Amino acid sequence: PTTDCFPSYLRNYLICKILEKRGGELKMSFPEIMKWNGWGYSDSKFLFNKKGQAEFTGKRYRLSGMIIPGLKDWMEGTFGANLQHKTPATVSPATLNKAFLEELKSTGIPFSHDAEDRVFRAHGHCLHEIFALREGKFGRVPDMVVWPNCHNDVVKIVELACKHNVCVIPYGGGTSVSSALECPPEETRSIVSLDTSQMNRILWIDEKNLTAHVEAGIVGQDLERLLNESGYCTGHEPDSMEFSSLGGWVATRASGMKKNIYGNIEDLVIHIRMVTPRGVIEKSCQGPRMSTGPDIHHFIMGSEGTLGVVTEVTMKIRPMPEYQKYGSVVFPNFEQGVACLREVAKQRCAPASIRLMDNEQFKFGHALKPQVSSIFTSFLDGLKTFYITKFKGFDPNRLCVATLLFEGDREKVLQHEKQVYDIAAKFGGLAAGEDNGQRGYMLTFVIAYLRDLGMDYYVIGESFETSVPWDRVLDICRNVKARIIQECKDKGVQFPPLSTCRVTQTYDTGACVYFYFAFNYRGLSDPVHVYEQVEHAAREEILANGGSLSHHHGVGKLRKEWMRDTVSNVGVGMLKSVKDYVDPDNIFGNRNLL
Amino acid sequence: MMFLSLQHRDPMLKKRDDFEDMLEERRNSSDLRYALRCYTPVLYKGLAPCKASMLKSMVLQSDQLHHVIGQVSRETGRAADDVQEEASAILEEMAHCLQLSTVRFFAFTLSKVFKTLFRSICVNEEGIQRLQQAIQEHPVVLLPSHRSYMDFLLMSYILYTYDIALPVIAAGMDFMGMKFVGEMLRMSGAFFIRRSFGGDKLYWSVFSEYVKTMLKNGFAPVEFFLEGTRSRTSKSLTPKLGLLNIVMDPYLKGEVYDINVVPVSISYERILEEALYAREMLGVPKPKESTSGLFKARKVLSEDYGSIHVYFGQPVSVRSLAQGRVNRCQFNLVPRHIPRRPSEEIQSFVNDSAYRLVRAQEENMVLKPWVLLASLLLQNHHQDQTAGQKRGMVLEELTAQAVWLRDMFREYGAFLHWPVVLLDICVGGQVKPGEPHSTVTPEEELLSQAVIVLSCASYRNQGLHVFLRPALLASAINAASSNLKQEVFNSFSFLRNMFSNEFILCPGATVQDFEEACYLLVKTGALQVTQQELLVTERGQRTVAFLTSMLDPFLQGYQVVCRFLCEEATENLTEKQFVPAVRKFIIKHLLAGRLRYTEVLSSDLQKNSLAALLRLGAVQKIKGRIKLSKVTYSSVFLLRTCVNLTYNC
């Protein structure tokens, strides 16, 4: 779905440019392309132009360069945000540690202890992290960054780290939203951020078995693009795929938008190679399934960097789909929409992706509609609205939209499409066109940029997810949204918050639900604290309503406190004993998970 | 731990709403027009009202009922269709079929009736507004106090008047016996439940699903009486938990975000059934509800029943009640439609909530001067009796004492309704309660006197909750062997425990109650609390004496039951025989002048003391027979303590 990619030649060129000798040390980073204190590319962002209209800059996305006339009104209407004030940002100074430096130098592996490099790798994308960055406040940051180039480099680094008792925190794409990259403030040893970004090659493709062996530092969009060149894809497309890395997916048990066809990361992975303080862990063969005791891959997947560094992964690949088609369905209300998704899951005919937005989110999507190019389109839009609300009697304050993505042979796609639309019709759903569907998916990639715009105008927000059995979906959506609104009110938020949700994945027995919430923090002395309290309350509500601690974001440090309740005492003990064996000196000391 | 700072909220500062008389408008405008006016209540989330038939089919198609039908059919070997039919019949027998036309009929006739019976019906309109708000936000449960058959008609009448969604009301099956009236009530929103259906899974399932469906869809507020039955004594009854469990379930299982529970306090100046109640407690059985009985009862129409005060309390959010008390994750691992016994955690939560809600009802009960006068007259009457005189009280003295008592009531936070000019007292001949009519036998004389005393006591009881904790403390101070705090606390704790079937005392709140009692007595200058001791002050003597004598009749009641069990109970005493046997025993002692309080003849008191002794393990129920506990040592000790304690007082 990303129409525009970050070309690797450009990246290589930049890396060459940046690889400058500076006092015998190497500096390697690309802050010129990436924002250091916000989401994504530096050239892509929302801003309000001189006329006060919203605009999305750059050329990377379908929305880039377009005027979005509805956004300002929506923001003012929803948050009471006044687009007048702005807040600047600064960076905190660095502290150095040289213990392990000398030996590292002799290996020739590039490293840096430049402040910018370190701060860049000291955070993920949780709201409090970005907020602190923008305010120029930041706690513990890594003392240095190393850039291994291959598996053997990682082995060397980990050996040295063990020898000198240095703490290693693996860093992939930096898109964590669980405080997993935060350095533990109580850590007294030197912290080394191990950046896998240079390990980004596809080592081989096996067309007979349809597998590819890839270095774990590769970023999602590069992996897809390179495979596409050979006519293949992995089909793994998490919303963060522009920036997140293969190693990160494995370490957090990631899930992709098109998992209905391709599966989640645990279904895609055939072989993993991980460097741990005890040595390298991997399986001896690539059989498609094994009965050899508990699957050791499951100790690795979801270990969140606490056991070692994933260096190479063999993944399933598929021939590129012949045909792709977007679609959308309007339902009279959210209940009907969920019932339809449930039926689709029951009949096991879910398209590559099917997502259901609630009414508030539908309105938000509407606000992000680009300026229409002609009177005719505008007229057509008006006609559609008239048909749905007046003729079909849908209440604009209750209706909701499902977006669909079909993939495969052209013929099968069309057949599949019909099947899904027929089911939808039984639940009062009306087909609402490809365009709405495509815009829905585009929004996924742009929404993270929107948070940065919000912060410029005293609006902070975040999303979080869960998975829940089907019979609980409606209850959890209603209760969590209501809880967010109530908590905001109780905590003194002056304007009603945005509290919306969508169902993003379907399974045989349940669904993945995403919640989005944002509020205007003017008048609050400690907005991030308020935000954290609300998110905490929302998570408790999720758990009380039978939702899981996380569907794919992981636990990190943000959700650690609920781990014991989630997996039981014995469960925690099991994980602890694995950690104790694999990493007795806590070299991988990011303190996630346990 | 125990004697912490006494920082209670001063009960005098309780803010309460003002009342409006809703009958006033009825007296000035057409009842017919009122009954036919446009009625458009606002519903939960702007829902359209649901037809009774649709509601039934929702219940019959529910997952829970399907599950239970399957289960029953497997267990009994009956065909599922057969069981389904039974379920459908149960539902048919139970379900309400609210019809606006019937409501309008009631609106018309009740207007006429109320205007003749009552001087005014006063409602706090702010409470009505809060209720209206609450209904739009979350499903609502109405919990009125229960003193009279009038209660639920009155509730619906008020809600109709203020254009608020009419509730569906849980009513006992005995009403169904009244042919025509039963159906009328059904059409005005009542649904009928059997009094006992202990083991009947199917019945329970239909019933709970029916209530939950109405509640969680927000079709109508659900109304029921926490006390389970009408209180014959004007004291609040220990709450029953069955229905409260059911209505809290949708919240606990996450089916609704929250539920608003609204306690409603209905205070009658004079209860319609007043004389009936006293007779019932003295052994004249309760007349079976019948339509003809209702017509015979129409002579009440010619009497004056004063005014009614209805106070709609602050809506209580079940979510906030459960906050930090119930872990809702306990429902994660079993499908929610499979009925399960509530966990201990939930049982204790529901129990505590029930007590809190009954206390909330008590708190907003409006007290009239008669309550104070009855308390004073009763005490005086007993003193007279001991002294063997029958002199009554001089009106001036009574007035002076009443003023003293009024101030005390106020300080304790009572919701007093004190007229600016005290009306020409209509007690008239009753300033001396218990003036016996000339009757034949001494026993008959005693009983007819007891009717009057019990009626008087029911007035006094209306105000008991105000004094309860200080009175327990006062009695504890009297009973304790020293003034040491710990001693007094122990004796307080014992008394409180013993009386927890008699009064509304939240389980496990002994320390809070003790502190509250200390606070009130210290605040009013009756008590001094030092590091070690509790000392009654000079001016506190009168208060303490008054408070102690408030509890005295109850103490004597418990004592006499203990004595009966120790001295006279035979091997084969069944629960049924208990009350008549105790009554005989008491009458004997009363006639012999060995007992002071005629009030102990109340079967309510006797049953409560038996329940307390059962709870405390002093007696046991084996195969329906009441026996002194096998662990005789401890039970005898317990009984002794009861007896000694009461002798001391």
From TrEMBL, chain A:
Binding sites annotated in the UniProt record for FAD: 170-176, 252-255, 304-310
Main localization of the protein described in the UniProt heading: membrane
Functional pathway: Glycerolipid metabolism; ether lipid biosynthesis; Lipid metabolism
GO-annotated cellular components: peroxisomal membrane
SUPFAM superfamilies the UniProt entry points to: FAD-binding/transporter-associated domain-like, FAD-linked oxidases, C-terminal domain
Family under the similarity heading: Belongs to the FAD-binding oxidoreductase/transferase type 4 family.
Role played: Catalyzes the exchange of an acyl for a long-chain alkyl group and the formation of the ether bond in the biosynthesis of ether phospholipids.
Official protein name in the record: Alkylglycerone-phosphate synthase
Organism: Sparus aurata
Highest classification ranks of the organism: Eukaryota, Metazoa, Chordata, Craniata, Vertebrata
Gene responsible for this protein: AGPS
TrEMBL record, chain B:
Recorded superkingdom: Eukaryota
Pathway: Phospholipid metabolism
Example of a GO biological process term: triglyceride biosynthetic process
GO CC list: mitochondrial membrane; peroxisomal membrane
Coiled coil (UniProt feature): none
Domain Phospholipid/glycerol acyltransferase: 140-269
GO MF entry, a single one: glycerone-phosphate O-acyltransferase activity
Keyword Membrane: yes
Location in or out of the cell: Membrane
Protein family per UniProt: Belongs to the GPAT/DAPAT family.
PANTHER family associated with the record: DIHYDROXYACETONE PHOSPHATE ACYLTRANSFERASE, GLYCEROL-3-PHOSPHATE ACYLTRANSFERASE
Protein name from the UniProt record: Glyceronephosphate O-acyltransferase
Organism: Sparus aurata
Gene: GNPAT
